[in-house]
Amino acid sequence: MKNKYDEKIHQKITAAYVPLKELILEDNGKEIDVIKYFTDYSRVLGSIELIIHSFISAHSETKDEEILSVLKEIRKNPLRESSLSEENALASAIMYGMSEELQRRKLAINEVHALLDWLIHEVEGRLEKGESYITMLKRFFKGGIKNKKNLIDELKKHLPFDVLATKELQETLIKNGVNIKLGERLNVEDVFDSKDYGGILCTIPYEKQVFVVSLTHLKIEKSHQLSRKIIEYQNKRLNQLKIESVKIRPKKDRYYFFLNPYTDAAFTKCPECNRKTKIRKFPLVILFEKTKIIFNLNKICKFCPYCELIIAKKDEIKPIIEQMGQKSDDMFVCGTLDKEDFKYVQDNQQNCNMMKMAYPFKNVWNFRVEPAGWIIGKNNMK
């Protein structure tokens, strides 16, 4: 039997719910970076988290695994409607939260998939570390970070105040059909807390429209009384996003790898499927087992997209390794990095755990060259 919360959700959905299939647009072909464009997506994410928080407040027996299962089920097909029942109450609530925000601004199906993937990784990542997503959600909705709340209170006392447009804001507004100049002066009318996803958000009127923008994507003039506190918050927020992007993302195995020891074999064809290989650059993660040193190298390799096989030539890596004072016989190429993580590692060598960022290989293969062709070696390392 439905409880009062379920009945309340049913009434809200009946009154205001618009099916997601009417709000979600076709795939626009864009690669979606949720971290980079938090300003665009924070309201949708915030709405979903708010409805999950409301649900778990009314259903204290709800487990993290149930939330994860429901999010994965919605991710399979966001366009499929869910009936309101005791079994589907959480799914209906989440879809209502999505519908509420998508009625304000429609998104493409690939954008919706990216947001659901982000939420799934958030829950999965915390479970893998033995933490609770529900506990985190309750903590943030109870009051968030005290310093952030104090900054919001101080900002409200100075409303309205001027800020300058940054490159991130410029890119966001151009996507919404609004041309704005870099460094253009804007007026902040209000600020509010979107919790863990968007941080402090600002409402900015511009050309008869009102935009909600993350404080992280705005530049404050040094003459402003709160400039030092705002800049400190922005730096901490950016670091938090980088750290969280690594902590919550599950690192599943990807690609197969072969370290080519032959000087006269270019492997222009894949030794596994005999199709032509491509030329790709991969950020490789190399471990020196004796010295326990970890090294990353952005290396041009042969690549078979059909077999997901990366082939790197040992003779090309060896001189670089020897310049570091290491022995090539001691090295073990253990995985790859995303391009963004590679850039982050280059800038923060002392402040990051490269192995947490690395995607390990599915398997490391050995091939030997014979006159008739290639034969896979017997001793494969997993």
Q: What would you say this structure looks like, in words?
A:
Helix 3 packs across helix 4. By secondary structure, the chain is of the alpha+beta class. It has a seven-stranded mixed beta sheet with strand order 14-13-10-11-12-9-15. A three-stranded antiparallel beta sheet has the order 4-3-8. It has a three-stranded antiparallel beta sheet with strand order 5-6-7. The protein has helices spanning 4-16, 38-58, 64-76, 89-102, 109-128, 133-142, 146-157, 167-175, 195-198, 227-247, 314-323, 339-347, 354-357, and strands at 24-25, 107-108, 161-165, 185-188, 190-193, 200-206, 209-214, 218-219, 256-260, 278-288, 293-304, 309-313, 331-336, 359-360, 363-364, 367-370, 373-376.
Quaternary organization = single chain
- The strand line-up of the biggest sheet is 14-13-10-11-12-9-15
| Overall pLDDT metric | 78
User: How is the biggest beta sheet arranged?
Assistant: 7 strands, mixed
- Please report the total strand number as a whole number: 17
SSE map:
Layout lengths: L3 H13 L7 E2 L12 H21 L5 H13 L12 H14 L4 E2 H20 L4 H10 L3 H12 L3 E5 L1 H9 L9 E4 L1 E4 L1 H4 L1 E7 L2 E6 L3 E2 L7 H21 L8 E5 L17 E11 L4 E12 L4 E5 H10 L7 E6 L2 H9 L6 H4 L1 E2 L2 E2 L2 E4 L2 E4 L6
Parallel strand pairs: 1-2, 9-12, 9-15
Antiparallel strand pairs: 3-4, 3-8, 5-6, 6-7, 10-11, 10-13, 11-12, 13-14, 16-17
